[in-house]
Structure formats: C-alpha cells, structure tokens
Design brief:
The chain is an all-beta fold and 276 residues long. The chain has one helix and 22 strands. It holds the Pfam family KduI.
C-alpha cells in the first residue's frame, strides 16, 4: 500500500507537472493477481484495485492501521468493472457481474474476491473509510439502480449518475460512492465546476479507448491546474480543490467521497468569472 500525504493550496502553487502527477495521480490501479492500494491522508481514505486471476484475493492490513483486521474500524465499498466474479463476506458468497457493487460494514472480518474466468478477470475497485458504527452489508446490483439523468448535449455534459453507496440506497458512516457515464458526444463532467470543503473525493476513470485522455482540473478557482489521465487511472481531489473534467471522448468514472456529511448535493458552485 502506497501512502499519499495532504497538501494545502499554497503547497501546489509552484508544482511542476511531474510534482502534481506524483502527489495526486495514481497511474496503476489494477494488476493481475494483486491487490493494489493507496492510502491518502485526505480523510484517511484507502482506494485501489483487486484483480484475482486463478486464486482468491483478500486485503490484509493490520499493522498499517493499528488494528487486528482490515475492517475492524472501517467500512468498504466495492464496484466490479471487469469480468464476472464473486465476493465472499464472512463465509457468505455473492456473484458480482460487471457494474455490481457492495457495501460492507465495519467489523466484517473476512472479505475474499474471486474471478469466474482467469481469461476475463473481475476488476474490483474498492474504497474504504474510517467508520464509527456497523451498518448492514448490502449488495447493490446495477439492475436495481435507476440512474439520475442530468446535463444536456448543448453544454456537452449529458450523463447518467448511478448512486451506489448513498442514503437513497443504503446506510453508511461517511462513505459515498457511485458511477457516472457520459453520453456519446458529451465530454464535460460538472461545468460550472464546484468545490465541497466538507468532503474530499477520489475519481477512477475507465472504459476509455486507448487514445482517450481526460483533463482533470484541480486547484483553487483562481489558480487552476490539471492532470492528464489515461484509462483505469485515479485522481485524489482534496476538499479545497475544484471538481470537474473534460475529455477527448465520452468516458466513465467512479466517484467516492468522505468527510463531514453524506449529502450528495452539498456543493459550492463556482461562477465562470472566477476561474483563472
């Protein structure tokens, strides 16, 4: 597990492209047969990929977190973006096709991930945050989610938002997690952009063509910066940073937030005349 530390807006003022990428971009999320995790000190979120091939995989973090087992004081969100697989939670097994998700509550001791087909492995994207209370484990099937349709083609941001770990779907302590799909011909996610000082966020961009690139914008409204992101790469977005992106083609991403509240619409929108 790699550790990333926190920064203030002043810290990044003179960062080079290389500095920004080193601190905020995670270039490798899924590795066959491995668990790849990043721990960010922004609200102590852990995120990454679990890609089982022929053998099952589990997350084993104890000393790193000062606990006896990974979810002793944490909750976990899972979305499968690869081939079909299964997840076993304290001995109970559920199938997980592409786009299926799971919320796993604090105190769960054993979570095991498997792929049905080594030639088409599952890719479990996982996000974990500290938790103070045990909420029930809930499978979240893509078939049961009615997406929130928003944006419009004229502003190039027509998209569907699938809310997985959200008060409308299941209870959680502070983790929110979901899935946004941009329509063909659309390329902007959230414009005008916004901040939410009360919550940090991570983004996983995926289902992109080899040559597609996302320009992920960050920084303060008055001093914007950007990261160029490829398929299956993730970005850490601090709470003080703007949140928006544009790409060379429509794309898909998983967003995951944690912080002071679980109010999805708690955003501070930035007027266009403030952006520099």
């Amino acid at each position: 597990m790699e550790t990333r530390y926190t920064h203030s807006p002043v810290d990044i003022r003179h960062y080079s492209t290389e500095d920004l990428r080193r601190e905020f971009l995670v270039e490798k999320i899924f590795e066959p047969g491995k668990v790849v995790l990043t721990y960010t000190h922004n609200d102590r979120q852990i995120f990454g990929g679990v890609t089982p091939i022929s053998e099952p995989l589990s997350v084993h973090l104890t000393k790193e977190l000062g606990v006896d087992y990974f979810l002793e004081r944490r909750e976990l969100g899972v979305i499968n973006i690869g081939g079909p697989g299964t997840i076993s939670i304290d001995g109970e097994t559920d199938s997980m096709k592409k786009q299926d998700g799971y919320y796993i509550g604090k105190g769960t001791k054993n979570v095991e991930f498997r792929s049905d087909d080594a030639e088409n492995p599952a890719k479990f994207y996982i996000v974990s945050t500290p938790a103070h209370h045990k909420y029930p484990n809930v499978k979240i099937s893509i078939d049961d989610i009615k997406p929130r349709e928003t944006g419009e083609s004229l502003s190039l941001n027509e998209r569907k938002i699938y809310q997985y770990i959200h008060p409308n779907i299941c209870e959680s302590c502070q983790l929110q997690m979901g899935y946004t799909v941009l329509s063909p011909g659309s390329s902007w996610n959230t414009m005008p952009c916004h901040t939410h000082e009360r919550r940090m966020e991570t983004y996983l961009y995926f289902d992109m063509d080899e040559d597609t690139r996302v320009f992920h914008f960050m920084g303060t409204p008055e001093e914007t910066k950007h990261l160029v992101v490829s398929n299956e790469q993730a970005v850490i977005s601090p709470s003080w940073s703007i949140h928006c992106g544009v790409a060379t083609k429509n794309y898909t991403f998983i967003w995951a937030m944690c912080g002071e509240n679980i109010t999805y619409d708690d955003m501070d929108f930035v007027s266009m005349d403030r952006l520099k």
